[in-house]
Predict the structure.
Amino acid sequence: MNMSAVSSHAGFVVKYLLSNWSLDLIITLPFIIVPSLLYFRGLKVAYRDQSEGRPLSVGADTQSVIMFMIGMFLMSVSFFTPVMYWSMVYLYMHMLIHVLVMIAVPPFIVGSKPWQIMRLGVPNRLDGAMDKLATIVSLEGPLASIMRFLTNPLLALIYFIAVMWVWFYPPLMTYAVTNEYVMDLMHFTFITAGIGLFVHLIDNPPFPKRVGNPVIRLGMILVGTYSSFMLAMLLGLSSGPWFSVYSHIPGKTLSAMADQQIAASVLWVLCMEPFVYTAYYNIKLWMSQSDAGEYNEPTPWLKRIKRPVVVPPGSQN
């Protein structure tokens, strides 16, 4: 074995791992740092309350904590590590962030039910303001109407699909790669579109269900999945590269077309697992509701189809 070649390769890997780390506070402060601080502070309060004989808060169980930590870890990989830097050089690395933030992270965050824990983590001096805000949002009024509109399930699905596609319009992609503030806007839409969709696909108390029927949720999952597949197919089967901004980077050895095809593969393969697991969650919910007699028709205009009774030949007298 050529040890000099091995050491050279190892040094190459170490160089890539130790350089080009980033800290974009515009995104990481509101979406990673502050939520994590509130969550772990609230978790401490929840465990203290449990030790004093009060019930454990929703979202403080071990499974939920692990899910939250996995979600935040994947989010941190996207925005703190060299992955962010290389997303400006290779389209497939940009696609990796795209899939992680929009599709992989949201099921972990929403499924961990962190909202009550984060509320416990709010400093005491802000309790009054938080309670007042919650009251205003829950009552009738302009702010409550705005919140109901922004959390509309159909709007969430449309927003998700729009964010998935719009940023792959070549001039917008070029603008984002060459302007850090547009890139921040892109990442903001990734996060809000992903969380905004999955809060309707996974139960997350104490918020009420806007889509309680698992069949409708499965339909939303199917639409989101096939939208991602269609984009991946267009990228992978195109006759030429879409984005000139990734074609003229000095020192880049991977061809633009190969880069785009790898990006299409990343979207095609990695978008499937989070949607599949979320679908499995809702199929299980559907079955449990059916067993308990709680399942309703998917939509009020669908009627149960009654098949005619078929009498086997020769059974008639």
In short: The longest helix spans residues 25-51. The two ends are 87 Å apart (CA to CA). Residues 185 and 212 are 31 Å apart (CA to CA). The chain has a mean pLDDT of 84.
